[in-house]
Amino acid sequence: MAELDDITxxxxxxxxxxxxxxxxxVLIRMVLSDYLQDCGFKILEAGTVSEAIAIxxxxxxIIDLVFxxxxxxxxxxxxxxxxxxxxxxxxxxxxxTSGDDKKAEMAGAICAKEEFLPKPYDHKVAVARxxxxxxxRRRSLLG
Length: 143
Description:
The chain is an alpha/beta fold and 143 residues long. It has one domain (2-9, 16-136): Rossmann fold, CATH 3.40.50.2300. 50% of the residues lie in helices and 17% in strands. The protein has 6 helices and 5 strands. It has helices at 2-8, 26-38, 49-58, 78-88, 101-110, 123-142, and strands at 18-22, 42-46, 65-69, 94-98, 115-118. A 5-stranded parallel β-sheet has the order 2-1-3-4-5, with helices on both faces. Strand 1, helix 2 and strand 2 (42-46) form a beta-alpha-beta unit. The longest helix is centred in the C-terminal third of the chain and has 20 residues, at 123-142. The protein is globular, with a radius of gyration of 15 Å. The two termini are 20 Å apart. Residues 1-7 have low confidence and may be disordered.
């Protein structure tokens, strides 16, 4: 069985980290995705929480981090996505972002253990946070 696990779940240090970017605003999602891709990450995109959950559940790509806006259409927001991830994929780090101060406070209160990045953010700062979270995840998986 160990051989199958090695094939199914490659060593995270031997593959390009994958980030799922979740934002309903296409231009914001595209700019962030392009920047992250230029920084060496594999990018998956979702415009709604339902799309994000479907991508995670499909399991076709090992996702190393979810970067999600808090304000989302479709009945579920980024906070609910973070809660779903913590219930169903507790090892998967989430980085939440929002430009809405009230939503930011709610995210902090409800998802106290989640990372939060207020909008507008500098893309270099975002990449530094992403890398730190992925490194921390790798350490916890390896050790």
